[in-house]
Amino acid sequence: MIIIKNLVKKYGEFYALHGLNFEVNENEIFGLLGPNGAGKTTLIHILATLLKPTEGYAIVNGFNVLHDATKVRESIGVVFQAPSSDDMLTGYENLKVHALLYGIPSSKREIRISEVLKLVGLEERKNDQVKKYSGGMRRRLEIARGLLHNPKVFFLDEPTLGLDPQSRDIMWTYIKKIVKEENVTIILTTHYMEEADTLCDRIGFITNGRIIALDSPLNLKQEIGGDIVKITFTDDIHANTDFADFDFVHRVENNGNSVIIYMDEVNSNLHRLVKHLDDVKSIEYTKPTLNDVFLKLSGDTLSGDSPEGGFMQRYAQYKKS
Amino acid sequence: MLSIRNLNFNIILGQLYALWLREFKVFLRERSRLVASTFTPLLWLFVIGSGLGSTNLQIGTDYQKFIFPGIICMSVIFTSVFFGSYIIWDRKFDFLKSVMVAPSSRTTVFVGKTLGGMTTSLFQVGIILIIGMVLGINYDAISLLQIISIVLILSFGLTSLGLTFGSYIESLEGFQLIVSFVVFPLFFLSGALFPIDNLPPWLKFITLVDPATYSVDALRNSLLHLGTYSFDLDIELLLLFTLIITLIGIFSFKRMKAV
């Protein structure tokens, strides 16, 4: 549905996108995951024909974003980060304005407006001015507006940014419903790992304008090397045991008096690991999350040489909380 | 400038209607805007009009009546040019982006926005016309038609001018500042407040290149039969100005960054 070839966007000497190549399949939810300033929004803007790439091109629904901008625009719906509904107008009026902009014939207009209002659960508030809507309702109205003209591809740029957990859950429910009922391909950007994990069929990790991994959440998590066991000792000396000798251990990270071990099959192997250990204070066991994947990946590619000050640390903190 | 294959007339009309409808609804809901922007022209009409009117000027008519056409133009100048600031608002939110990703051309967006500005001006002029009746100015069907035409042409041109500025200027503060340098000369040099027949040559020359001059003169022709130039010449020059500034505006809109 979307083909991205060698896409580069430069601002002066700064590379916002650094030669992207990937494809998005029909009817999948594709997640673009990465920290602020990674290039997610730039990519969406190029795919939505609002920005011209410095090099390379992208095909959306069979149309080149460089040469067939109008055809691309007819094929896509976009929900931007900032609110884009006029809050002096009612929800219904916002939808009507956009239905007219997209040239939806008058015979279908009202039916379609009711359909999308129903889809996002805003029928009862349609005649209220948007300024009286909550943050979550506004975002849902934007989704309704983006879907009005039956787009083939639907871009959601951080759809749950700034929403409370409850509104976020509601949003997720609606997004899942949309894929079922509207038959669209969704490209979603987010920096919430949990969101990407719940919603996306495939995820592209993007940092500093590069895709550093692209796979299904499940495969990504398996790639990290099985389960994660954290053993904390009473002192630093015991933590220096060489765990890498075990054949079921993939990777070991030492942090002072604790050690993080990535290993296969915790249930059958843990006893072998701890049999000879003394002075163990605690043992924690977790299934890997996308956070762990992201930390591992960004650690691998950047190896401490992060130009965007401190996002590694931020993600580490995010993980702890 | 327009590619023929995208020219589906019904769709473009629908798009123009959509953009206009949005501006109109906002305008109707923000009545304070209407009241506030009508206040300044009325202040000029009554305070300057009565004040200077009491000094026995040799202009062939009552001074307040004499500046009445100028006050109509003043309200159009201020409302229309400052209307351009709304494009900056639209950019600050993502409303403009959402319009830009719709399959409507920038020309359509520009004209739709301009129609919104024209409507606002027309409403204000309507209020001033009603007050004019109190001052003893008489309208007939022809002069009303003429006034409406003049106001529409002038406000189309000046909204285009405002939107042109708006497409280059990023901040509202910058817009206010720069546009003040435009609207005040437009108003003062249009002959709105004084007759332009016996001006010193340098001042006369400047009034000649001020498009508002011809709208003031056209209105004076129509309402008071006191014009310096002929009504037809006024309208022709006004149309020429509007055409040029609209083309510049569309050009500016096309090269405006979407994000």
Count of DSSP strands of chain A: 14
- Give, in order, the helices and strands of chain A: EEEHEEHEHHHEHEHEEHEEEHEHH
Number of helices of chain A: 11
Mean pLDDT over all positions of chain B: 89
The number of distinct helices of chain B, counting runs of at least 4 residues, comes to 11
Range of helix content of chain A: 25-40%
Global geometry of chain A? elongated
Helix/strand-derived category of chain A reads: alpha/beta
What is the N-to-C order of secondary-structure elements of chain B (H for helix, E for strand)? Answer: HHHHHHHHHHH
The low-confidence runs of chain B, each spanning 5 or more residues with pLDDT under 50, are none
Largest sheet of chain B: none
Text of the CATH class of the largest domain in chain A: Alpha Beta
- Biggest interface between protein chains, with counts per chain? A-B, 30 and 28 residues
Percentage of residues in strands of chain B: under 5%
Tertiary shape of chain B: globular
N- and C-termini, Cα separation of chain A: 37 Å
Oligomeric state of the chains?
heterodimer
Which CATH architecture of the largest domain in chain A would you pick?
Answer: 3-Layer(aba) Sandwich
If you compute it from the alpha carbons, what radius of gyration of chain B comes out, rounded to the nearest whole angstrom?
A: 19 Å
- What is the count of distinct domains of chain B? 1
Order of strands across the main sheet of chain A: 6-7-8-3-9-10
